[in-house]
Automatic annotation (TrEMBL):
GO biological process, one term: 'de novo' NAD+ biosynthetic process from L-aspartate
Cofactor(s) the protein requires to work: [4Fe-4S] cluster
Protein origin, superkingdom: Bacteria
Main localization category: cytoplasm
Organism listed in the record: Thermoanaerobacterium aotearoense SCUT27
Chain positions recorded as [4Fe-4S] cluster binding sites: C85, C171, C259
Function: Catalyzes the condensation of iminoaspartate with dihydroxyacetone phosphate to form quinolinate.
GO cellular component: cytoplasm
Name assigned to this protein: Quinolinate synthase
Length: 302
Protein backbone atom coordinates (compact mmCIF):
# COMPACT_ATOMS: atom_id res chain seq x y z
CA UNK A 1 0.00 0.00 0.00
CA UNK A 2 1.31 3.45 -0.97
CA UNK A 3 2.00 5.21 2.36
CA UNK A 4 1.88 8.60 0.63
CA UNK A 5 -1.74 8.06 -0.49
CA UNK A 6 -2.73 6.89 2.98
CA UNK A 7 -1.18 9.94 4.61
CA UNK A 8 -2.90 12.28 2.15
CA UNK A 9 -6.27 10.59 2.77
CA UNK A 10 -5.78 10.87 6.51
CA UNK A 11 -4.86 14.55 6.33
CA UNK A 12 -7.77 15.44 4.01
CA UNK A 13 -10.20 13.48 6.16
CA UNK A 14 -9.34 15.72 9.11
CA UNK A 15 -9.40 18.93 7.07
CA UNK A 16 -12.81 18.11 5.58
CA UNK A 17 -14.26 16.59 8.76
CA UNK A 18 -15.02 13.51 6.68
CA UNK A 19 -15.87 9.96 7.60
CA UNK A 20 -15.15 6.94 5.35
CA UNK A 21 -17.78 4.20 5.33
CA UNK A 22 -17.14 0.88 3.62
CA UNK A 23 -19.31 -2.10 2.79
CA UNK A 24 -17.89 -5.58 3.47
CA UNK A 25 -17.67 -6.24 -0.28
CA UNK A 26 -15.17 -3.46 -0.93
CA UNK A 27 -11.52 -4.16 -1.81
CA UNK A 28 -9.41 -5.07 1.27
CA UNK A 29 -7.38 -1.84 1.09
CA UNK A 30 -10.60 0.21 1.17
CA UNK A 31 -11.94 -1.73 4.15
CA UNK A 32 -8.63 -1.09 5.91
CA UNK A 33 -8.85 2.72 5.63
CA UNK A 34 -12.54 2.93 6.57
CA UNK A 35 -13.71 4.47 9.84
CA UNK A 36 -16.61 2.07 9.82
CA UNK A 37 -17.31 -1.18 7.93
CA UNK A 38 -20.76 -2.71 7.89
CA UNK A 39 -23.70 -4.22 6.08
CA UNK A 40 -26.21 -1.96 4.37
CA UNK A 41 -28.40 -1.60 7.47
CA UNK A 42 -25.50 -0.63 9.72
CA UNK A 43 -24.08 1.74 7.13
CA UNK A 44 -27.39 3.59 6.76
CA UNK A 45 -27.63 3.93 10.55
CA UNK A 46 -24.04 5.16 10.70
CA UNK A 47 -24.62 7.71 7.92
CA UNK A 48 -27.61 9.06 9.83
CA UNK A 49 -25.74 9.31 13.14
CA UNK A 50 -22.37 10.74 12.15
CA UNK A 51 -21.59 14.37 12.87
CA UNK A 52 -19.05 14.52 10.03
CA UNK A 53 -19.72 17.10 7.30
CA UNK A 54 -18.64 14.77 4.51
CA UNK A 55 -19.51 11.08 4.12
CA UNK A 56 -17.25 9.17 1.72
CA UNK A 57 -19.38 6.16 0.88
CA UNK A 58 -17.35 3.22 -0.41
CA UNK A 59 -20.15 1.04 -1.65
CA UNK A 60 -22.62 1.30 -4.52
CA UNK A 61 -24.94 4.08 -5.68
CA UNK A 62 -28.12 3.13 -3.79
CA UNK A 63 -26.16 3.13 -0.51
CA UNK A 64 -24.88 6.66 -1.09
CA UNK A 65 -28.41 7.72 -2.05
CA UNK A 66 -29.76 6.29 1.19
CA UNK A 67 -27.12 8.24 3.12
CA UNK A 68 -28.04 11.42 1.26
CA UNK A 69 -31.75 10.87 1.97
CA UNK A 70 -31.06 10.46 5.68
CA UNK A 71 -28.55 13.30 5.90
CA UNK A 72 -29.48 16.01 3.40
CA UNK A 73 -27.19 18.54 5.07
CA UNK A 74 -24.12 16.38 4.65
CA UNK A 75 -22.09 16.03 1.50
CA UNK A 76 -22.22 12.38 0.40
CA UNK A 77 -19.45 11.30 -1.97
CA UNK A 78 -19.40 8.10 -4.01
CA UNK A 79 -15.70 7.92 -5.00
CA UNK A 80 -16.41 5.94 -8.20
CA UNK A 81 -19.69 7.18 -9.64
CA UNK A 82 -19.87 4.16 -11.96
CA UNK A 83 -20.45 1.83 -9.00
CA UNK A 84 -24.11 0.92 -9.40
CA UNK A 85 -26.14 -2.10 -8.39
CA UNK A 86 -27.70 -3.98 -11.33
CA UNK A 87 -30.39 -5.43 -9.05
CA UNK A 88 -31.48 -1.95 -7.94
CA UNK A 89 -31.83 -0.99 -11.60
CA UNK A 90 -34.16 -3.95 -12.21
CA UNK A 91 -37.05 -2.25 -10.39
CA UNK A 92 -38.25 0.85 -12.22
CA UNK A 93 -40.55 3.64 -11.06
CA UNK A 94 -43.16 3.22 -13.83
CA UNK A 95 -43.32 -0.54 -13.47
CA UNK A 96 -43.84 -0.32 -9.72
CA UNK A 97 -46.45 2.41 -10.16
CA UNK A 98 -48.36 0.11 -12.54
CA UNK A 99 -48.15 -2.83 -10.13
CA UNK A 100 -49.43 -0.62 -7.31
CA UNK A 101 -52.38 0.42 -9.49
CA UNK A 102 -53.22 -3.26 -9.98
CA UNK A 103 -53.00 -3.83 -6.20
CA UNK A 104 -54.13 -0.53 -4.69
CA UNK A 105 -54.32 -1.86 -1.12
CA UNK A 106 -50.99 -3.63 -1.12
CA UNK A 107 -48.19 -2.59 1.21
CA UNK A 108 -44.91 -2.07 -0.67
CA UNK A 109 -41.74 -3.40 0.93
CA UNK A 110 -38.61 -2.37 -0.91
CA UNK A 111 -35.18 -3.79 -0.30
CA UNK A 112 -32.67 -0.95 0.24
CA UNK A 113 -31.10 -2.14 -3.02
CA UNK A 114 -33.50 0.13 -4.94
CA UNK A 115 -33.33 3.60 -6.45
CA UNK A 116 -34.54 6.61 -4.45
CA UNK A 117 -37.52 6.91 -6.88
CA UNK A 118 -38.63 3.36 -6.09
CA UNK A 119 -38.22 4.01 -2.35
CA UNK A 120 -40.43 7.07 -2.78
CA UNK A 121 -43.23 4.72 -3.92
CA UNK A 122 -42.72 2.31 -1.02
CA UNK A 123 -44.29 1.95 2.41
CA UNK A 124 -41.28 0.46 4.18
CA UNK A 125 -37.73 -0.54 3.32
CA UNK A 126 -35.77 -3.55 4.50
CA UNK A 127 -32.28 -4.95 4.22
CA UNK A 128 -31.18 -8.57 4.20
CA UNK A 129 -30.60 -8.23 7.96
CA UNK A 130 -34.16 -7.25 8.88
CA UNK A 131 -36.40 -8.30 5.95
CA UNK A 132 -38.22 -11.02 7.93
CA UNK A 133 -38.73 -8.71 10.92
CA UNK A 134 -40.01 -5.91 8.67
CA UNK A 135 -42.55 -8.11 6.87
CA UNK A 136 -43.71 -9.49 10.22
CA UNK A 137 -44.74 -5.94 11.25
CA UNK A 138 -47.33 -5.86 8.43
CA UNK A 139 -50.83 -7.10 9.37
CA UNK A 140 -51.41 -10.66 8.07
CA UNK A 141 -54.46 -9.70 5.99
CA UNK A 142 -52.55 -7.07 3.99
CA UNK A 143 -51.30 -7.89 0.53
CA UNK A 144 -47.53 -7.28 0.23
CA UNK A 145 -45.55 -6.25 -2.84
CA UNK A 146 -41.85 -7.06 -2.40
CA UNK A 147 -39.23 -5.41 -4.66
CA UNK A 148 -36.83 -6.16 -6.31
CA UNK A 149 -35.07 -9.38 -5.18
CA UNK A 150 -36.94 -12.60 -5.96
CA UNK A 151 -34.55 -14.73 -3.91
CA UNK A 152 -34.79 -12.62 -0.77
CA UNK A 153 -38.55 -12.35 -1.35
CA UNK A 154 -38.96 -16.12 -1.56
CA UNK A 155 -36.85 -16.58 1.58
CA UNK A 156 -39.02 -14.05 3.46
CA UNK A 157 -42.14 -15.90 2.30
CA UNK A 158 -40.77 -19.13 3.75
CA UNK A 159 -39.78 -17.53 7.05
CA UNK A 160 -43.02 -15.61 7.53
CA UNK A 161 -45.42 -18.16 6.03
CA UNK A 162 -47.13 -15.56 3.86
CA UNK A 163 -47.55 -15.11 0.12
CA UNK A 164 -46.26 -11.92 -1.44
CA UNK A 165 -46.29 -10.36 -4.88
CA UNK A 166 -42.59 -10.61 -5.67
CA UNK A 167 -40.72 -8.57 -8.27
CA UNK A 168 -38.48 -10.82 -10.39
CA UNK A 169 -35.16 -9.04 -9.87
CA UNK A 170 -31.97 -10.70 -8.67
CA UNK A 171 -28.35 -10.04 -7.88
CA UNK A 172 -26.10 -10.88 -10.82
CA UNK A 173 -23.41 -12.06 -8.44
CA UNK A 174 -25.28 -14.16 -5.86
CA UNK A 175 -27.71 -15.61 -8.38
CA UNK A 176 -24.82 -17.21 -10.30
CA UNK A 177 -23.86 -19.49 -7.44
CA UNK A 178 -25.24 -22.98 -8.04
CA UNK A 179 -26.24 -25.63 -5.52
CA UNK A 180 -23.85 -28.05 -7.22
CA UNK A 181 -20.90 -25.75 -6.56
CA UNK A 182 -21.83 -25.60 -2.87
CA UNK A 183 -22.33 -29.39 -2.71
CA UNK A 184 -18.97 -30.08 -4.33
CA UNK A 185 -17.28 -27.72 -1.87
CA UNK A 186 -19.02 -29.46 1.01
CA UNK A 187 -17.67 -32.81 -0.26
CA UNK A 188 -14.16 -31.38 0.01
CA UNK A 189 -14.82 -29.84 3.43
CA UNK A 190 -17.41 -32.11 5.06
CA UNK A 191 -17.02 -30.46 8.49
CA UNK A 192 -17.61 -26.94 7.16
CA UNK A 193 -20.68 -24.94 8.14
CA UNK A 194 -22.50 -23.45 5.11
CA UNK A 195 -23.48 -19.78 5.51
CA UNK A 196 -25.46 -18.09 2.72
CA UNK A 197 -26.68 -14.60 1.93
CA UNK A 198 -30.44 -14.51 1.17
CA UNK A 199 -29.73 -13.12 -2.32
CA UNK A 200 -28.57 -16.65 -3.24
CA UNK A 201 -30.96 -18.95 -5.11
CA UNK A 202 -33.57 -20.89 -3.18
CA UNK A 203 -31.88 -24.27 -3.76
CA UNK A 204 -28.64 -22.88 -2.30
CA UNK A 205 -30.45 -21.47 0.73
CA UNK A 206 -32.11 -24.87 1.23
CA UNK A 207 -28.77 -26.53 1.97
CA UNK A 208 -27.32 -23.67 4.04
CA UNK A 209 -26.85 -24.13 7.79
CA UNK A 210 -27.54 -20.43 8.28
CA UNK A 211 -28.90 -17.57 6.13
CA UNK A 212 -27.54 -14.17 7.09
CA UNK A 213 -26.72 -10.65 5.98
CA UNK A 214 -23.01 -9.91 5.78
CA UNK A 215 -22.74 -8.76 9.41
CA UNK A 216 -24.99 -11.61 10.46
CA UNK A 217 -22.38 -14.01 9.06
CA UNK A 218 -19.56 -12.34 10.98
CA UNK A 219 -21.57 -12.52 14.20
CA UNK A 220 -22.39 -16.19 13.58
CA UNK A 221 -18.70 -17.06 13.04
CA UNK A 222 -17.78 -15.22 16.24
CA UNK A 223 -20.21 -17.27 18.28
CA UNK A 224 -19.62 -20.63 16.56
CA UNK A 225 -17.24 -23.38 17.71
CA UNK A 226 -16.84 -24.61 14.14
CA UNK A 227 -13.42 -24.22 12.48
CA UNK A 228 -14.43 -24.21 8.79
CA UNK A 229 -17.07 -22.22 6.93
CA UNK A 230 -18.29 -22.25 3.34
CA UNK A 231 -19.20 -18.63 2.65
CA UNK A 232 -21.91 -18.11 0.03
CA UNK A 233 -21.63 -14.38 -0.58
CA UNK A 234 -19.37 -11.84 -2.25
CA UNK A 235 -15.65 -12.48 -1.72
CA UNK A 236 -14.90 -9.11 -0.05
CA UNK A 237 -16.25 -10.38 3.26
CA UNK A 238 -13.42 -12.91 3.48
CA UNK A 239 -11.01 -10.08 4.24
CA UNK A 240 -12.87 -9.21 7.46
CA UNK A 241 -13.46 -12.83 8.40
CA UNK A 242 -9.80 -13.78 7.98
CA UNK A 243 -8.64 -10.66 9.80
CA UNK A 244 -10.98 -11.19 12.74
CA UNK A 245 -10.69 -14.98 12.99
CA UNK A 246 -7.23 -15.99 11.67
CA UNK A 247 -7.50 -19.48 13.22
CA UNK A 248 -10.65 -20.36 11.26
CA UNK A 249 -10.87 -21.38 7.63
CA UNK A 250 -13.20 -19.66 5.15
CA UNK A 251 -13.93 -21.21 1.77
CA UNK A 252 -15.67 -19.57 -1.19
CA UNK A 253 -17.64 -22.20 -3.14
CA UNK A 254 -17.19 -20.42 -6.48
CA UNK A 255 -14.84 -17.95 -8.12
CA UNK A 256 -17.88 -16.13 -9.56
CA UNK A 257 -18.70 -14.51 -6.24
CA UNK A 258 -17.25 -11.12 -7.12
CA UNK A 259 -19.46 -8.05 -7.55
CA UNK A 260 -17.77 -5.97 -10.27
CA UNK A 261 -19.49 -2.82 -9.03
CA UNK A 262 -18.33 -3.21 -5.44
CA UNK A 263 -14.78 -3.60 -6.75
CA UNK A 264 -14.85 -0.44 -8.88
CA UNK A 265 -13.78 1.87 -6.06
CA UNK A 266 -10.01 2.11 -5.76
CA UNK A 267 -7.93 3.85 -3.14
CA UNK A 268 -6.99 6.55 -5.69
CA UNK A 269 -10.72 7.30 -6.18
CA UNK A 270 -11.09 7.86 -2.43
CA UNK A 271 -8.17 10.28 -2.43
CA UNK A 272 -9.49 12.15 -5.49
CA UNK A 273 -12.97 12.45 -4.05
CA UNK A 274 -11.61 13.92 -0.82
CA UNK A 275 -9.42 16.32 -2.78
CA UNK A 276 -12.12 17.52 -5.15
CA UNK A 277 -15.24 16.86 -3.04
CA UNK A 278 -16.92 14.95 -5.82
CA UNK A 279 -18.61 12.93 -7.24
CA UNK A 280 -21.44 13.93 -4.95
CA UNK A 281 -24.69 11.97 -4.71
CA UNK A 282 -27.64 14.17 -3.87
CA UNK A 283 -31.27 13.11 -4.03
CA UNK A 284 -33.66 15.83 -5.27
CA UNK A 285 -35.78 17.19 -2.46
CA UNK A 286 -39.20 16.12 -3.83
CA UNK A 287 -38.05 12.48 -4.02
CA UNK A 288 -36.11 12.69 -0.78
CA UNK A 289 -39.12 13.84 1.24
CA UNK A 290 -41.07 10.75 0.12
CA UNK A 291 -38.19 8.26 0.21
CA UNK A 292 -37.20 9.09 3.77
CA UNK A 293 -40.54 7.81 5.13
CA UNK A 294 -40.02 4.08 4.32
CA UNK A 295 -36.37 4.26 5.38
CA UNK A 296 -37.24 5.79 8.76
CA UNK A 297 -40.00 3.23 9.25
CA UNK A 298 -37.41 0.51 8.68
CA UNK A 299 -34.94 2.07 11.11
CA UNK A 300 -37.68 2.15 13.75
CA UNK A 301 -38.23 -1.62 13.49
CA UNK A 302 -36.38 -3.04 16.50
P1 LIG B 1 -26.01 -6.63 3.08
O1 LIG B 1 -27.30 -5.95 3.39
O2 LIG B 1 -25.93 -7.99 3.67
O3 LIG B 1 -24.89 -5.77 3.44
O4 LIG B 1 -25.96 -6.86 1.51
C1 LIG B 1 -26.02 -5.81 0.60
C2 LIG B 1 -25.82 -6.27 -0.76
O5 LIG B 1 -25.71 -5.53 -1.70
C3 LIG B 1 -25.77 -7.70 -0.94
O6 LIG B 1 -25.47 -8.00 -2.23
FE1 LIG C 1 -25.95 -5.28 -6.07
FE2 LIG C 1 -25.40 -7.88 -5.94
FE3 LIG C 1 -23.42 -6.15 -6.06
FE4 LIG C 1 -24.93 -6.38 -3.84
S1 LIG C 1 -23.55 -7.91 -4.69
S2 LIG C 1 -24.29 -4.48 -4.83
S3 LIG C 1 -26.93 -6.79 -4.78
S4 LIG C 1 -24.97 -6.49 -7.64
Amino acid sequence: MDKDILNKIDKLKKERNAVILSHFYQRPEIQDIADFIGDSLELSRKAAETDANVVVFCGVHFMAETASILSPDKMVLLPNIGAGCPMAEMADYDGLLKLKEQHPDAYVVSYVNTTAEVKALSDICCTSANAVKVVNTIPKEKEVIFVPDKNLGRYVEKMTGRNMIIWQGYCNTHNKLSRLEVELTKERYPEAVILAHPECREDVLDIADGVFSTSGMIKFVKESNAREFIICTEDGILHQLQKKYPDKKFILPSNKLVCPNMKKTKIEDVLESLENLRPEVKVPDDIRRKAIIPIKRMLDVK
